[in-house]
Amino acid sequence: MEHILYQVPPSTPIALDDLEDATIRRLDLLLSLQGKESTTYNCNIDKDVHGHFGLRVVFAMIQASSAEKTDMCEWFIKQETLLLQQRLLESIQPRRDLIRDMLQALDAVSYDEEDNNLLVPFQDIPFLVRSRSVILRSGVAHIPLESRHAVFLVAHHARKHFESQLEIQARACCVHPASFELERLYPLRVQVEKALQDALSSRSFVSSSLEHIGDKAGLERYERCLPLCMRYLFDKLRHDHHLKYEGRNQLRMFLKGVGFTFEENMIFWRSMLVSKAFDKKYAYNIRHSYGLVGSRFDYEPWSCATIQNLPPPSAGQFHGCPFQRWESEFLKRQLLQYGGISTTTASQIASIAATEAPVATCRLYLAQRFPRAAPTAVAEKLNLIDHPNKWFDLARRCRTSD
After folding, report:
1. Domain limits of the chain?
2. CA 260 to chain centre
3. Nearest CA to 217 among 233, 246, 238, 232?
4. Close Cβ partners of 62 (under 8 Å, ≥ 6 residues apart)
5. pTM over cut 0.90
6. Quick check: 35 pLDDT over 80?
7. Percentage helix, strand, coil for the chain under 3-state DSSP, each rounded to 5
8. Which InterPro entries does the UniProt record give (predicted)?
9. How far apart are the C-alpha atoms of 351 and 354, rounded to whole Å?
10. What is the pLDDT of residues 300-339, one digit of tens each?
11. Minimal CA–CA distance to 194: which of 290, 95, 296, 270?
């Protein structure tokens, strides 16, 4: 249990070269989650623990040298959370006992031994309550240990755990900023930062064989090819001339993946947002997305996993994955409003979304959206769709052959 949550640092000695090797291997493992590459998520426990703590110290050094938590540190926390979630989903151990023990170790929830349910205050899981995915009794949600919702609940609390542990480590680095031990790790920090920047900046979602899109008119021309999450955000932005923080980030990074240059992204948002203080309130975040200010990190467009890991939307927020967050009836209405599928198909998709993984349901929606496109070619690529920009790219190709 301790090695899964990394609550206790390793006590066995390790040579500096071996620590560097374990840390870089850990970084490679976290990077593999970005593209959902086929890999083994379980490995030698000692190397796994040393690799995690090696990376934790490196990112703590990065955070300690900044006035606030950097986006690299956010990436580290997010990827560690995704790794833990993936390991739970693929665990060969009895998942029920593992989940129960982890949540109790995190002091996160209560447990009902009679019906093997986790007991969670309803306000802690608004997205599950809203989608009617759990049973409520006296304001307490009952979540079966065998359900995938229990895994997501573990990931939610584990993320908070990783955040607090990184903050503690960063404070320690601030207290001893020039210690000999940290100086010895400086070359490793440089290596990690460079490897992370190179790996993420090299990922491209823009297909050279498709028409360039760089403005509102181009998006509207291919509006029916937008994935549901982005079309909904685009609609809300056009109607309200406003999106809250997470929604702006989600759509802005998608536009970057579509092929919008920095200048085109600036022009788009300046024309869409009603704000006299655009340069003061919004321009910095756009520059930041392209690595022009701040940490100078050229961020990649957000994957489905990243979007699904966002905080649940509250009132007035529209970010996130519709197939994960929306109630069945609302999902059905939106699918019909955007057209391209029958009432029966919309009902089937809404029903499937309540039980299946969001990415799988989104792939089904794409297949039903363009039924006359070359079936074999679409089927071969559908299983690779784990990113809204990949969805958009394939939808544009399907539209051509539909």
Report:
1. 2-91+152-201, 106-147, 216-401
2. 21
3. 238
4. 70, 72, 73, 189, 193
5. no
6. no
7. 65, 5, 35
8. DNA_primase_C, DNA_primase_lsu_euk/arc
9. 6
10. 899 898 999 898 998 899 999 999 999 999 999 999 999 8
11. 296
